[in-house]
Amino acid sequence: MIRVLGKQEAVAIFEPRCLLADATPAELAQLVRWHEALARLRARDWHAAAALIGQLQADFPDDGLYRLYAARVEAYCRTPPAADWDGVTALDSK
User: Fold this and answer.
1) Are 90 and 3 in contact (CB under 8 A)?
2) Which end of the chain is more exposed for a tag (fewer CB within 10 A), N or C?
3) Rg (alpha carbons) of the chain, rounded to whole number
4) What is the DSSP secondary-structure string of 16-85?
C-alpha cells in the first residue's frame, strides 16, 4: 500500500509474478512467506519482518522487491513510524 504525494487515500500496488492457476508449489510457498513478512511489517514487528524478508532475500537474491523491503524495514528499525502509522508507505516525491 502506498500513498502518493498530495493524496490522502492509499492505493494497493502489485507486482504480477504469474497466473495463480499456473503457479508452482514453490511459487505458492514463496507467496505465503511474503504475505507473512508483510503481515509482520504492518504489525510493526520489525525484527520478525526483517528476518522473514532476509530469508526471502537469501533464497531469491536477484529479487528487487525483497531488496526494497529489506531497506524499508531496516529504516523502520532505526526510526519507527509514528504510533498512528497505518502500514502505508507515504511517498514524499513524484
Assistant:
1) yes
2) C
3) 14
4) --S-GGG--HHHHHHHHHHHHHHHHHHTT-HHHHHHHHHHHHHHSTT-HHHHHHHHHHHHHHHSPPPTT-
**What pTM was computed for the model?**
0.84
CA distance 25 to 86: 32
Cell of 76: 523502520
Tell whether the model's pLDDT for residue 33 goes beyond 90.
yes
Task: Return all residues near 76 (Cβ < 8 A) that are at least 6 apart.
Answer: 41, 44, 46
